[in-house]
Known about the structure:
Layout: E1 3-8, H1 23-40, E2 44-47, H2 59-69, E3 74-81, H3 87-101, E4 105-110, H4 134-148, E5 183-187, H5 190-198, E6 202-205, E7 208-210, H6 217-235, E8 243-251, H7 255-261, E9 270-275, E10 278-282, E11 285-288, H8 290-298, H9 301-305, E12 308-312, H10 319-333
Parallel strand pairs: 1-2, 1-12, 2-3, 3-4, 4-5, 5-6, 6-8, 8-11, 8-12
Antiparallel strand pairs: 7-10, 9-10
Helix pairs in contact: 1-2, 1-10, 2-3, 3-4, 5-6
Amino acid sequence: MKKIGFLSFGHWTPSPQSQTRTAADSLLQAIDLAVAAEEAGADGAYFRVHHFARQHASPFPLLAAIGARTSRIEIGTGVIDMRYENPLYMAEDAGAADLISGGRLQLGVSRGSPEQVVDGWRYFGHVPAEGESDADMARAHTERFLDVLKGEGFARPNPRPMFANPPGLLRVEPYSDGLRDRIWWGSSSNATARWAAGLGMNLQSSTLKNDESGEPLHVQQRKQIEAYREAWRAAGHTREPRVSVSRSVFPLTDGRDRAYFGREGGSRDQIGHIDENTRAIFGRSYAAEPDALVKQLAEDEAIAAADTLLLTVPNQLGVDYNVHVIESVLTHVAPALGWR
């Protein structure tokens, strides 16, 4: 059995070919898609976070709105760039959204991806300490965020407060019990997967991964997941961790599918460079008739190793079409693979 959700980047563009032409379109359609996905039987609604781009950026108003409109589906991110975040303010926002949803938040966080602007986090008031890189800063923000989510008091109360305080040191409010165990790290390398395991975070294996062995992406991800789980056991955590991978999966069941994705059948992994020093591998798309798709996905070692699959959706094709894609996977693919 697998949890199956969708992952949306929330693109919008003022093009007549797009069904999502404004930021308002992107946000409102995301809510509608999450509601429809829950009705279709999907397990998760996840959203990418990009700053300075025509995509989803500020996740918590969106997650809270979805939490208020749904009752079962997990809601989360994949991922929030922690270089941009104030950990305490983020803990307040996350606690509120989690309480609104009844404890369904699944927050993916990470160091972030290549940006639209140079050092965009500086505009948000965050500067690495002397001798620290932006990646170091992201991990430091993450560790502080995780500490705050424990719910332990740390702030000295005012002896003459406006309102009466509970005894002892104060914590960030609102506090949502259990959220600490529902934080995921979006990892593009084996080393950061091990680091995340040590801190007790779940793992989102990034579709854009450092090419560490020259092997196909799904093999590298499977080995990354194994390294993560080994580190998790070594750290002595008592609960079972969650692991997700994301894929573009399109069962070709009607004319729309074939028109949009019929040429994707020969897709292969792609190689590129995140920066001048980092060679990366990016995953293929899966597009085929359902029977052929089942055979292809059965050979994906990372999907087999993960407990959660996130379907990357082409949100600019509109809510109705994306619901059709999700339903097609749930109906024509998942049962044949034993995921349902």
